[in-house]
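Residues and backbone
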Amino acid sequence: MYINHFVLMSRQYYKEVFGKEAGSNIIYLSTTGDDAAQKLLANQISTIQGVEGVSLYSGQLDNFNSMVKGLNGIIWVLIFLKYVIGVCCTK
């Protein structure tokens, strides 16, 4: 599972690896405020011409945490089944 996956590198290294100048296609912002203020800012940014998308890290982190919580239940079931199988098969 990934929250996001990025490759971050300097402009000089990008040119060395790809043989061309790096263009800017993403901007990272650090904001303060509650979720409503961040969503309002994201909506305002998304109306700017040329902006194709806005991602809020807090929302992605919440989704990741809920997936992990769901997996925790599955792991406990597997541990229990392993114990039951171990007890039944050793007799």
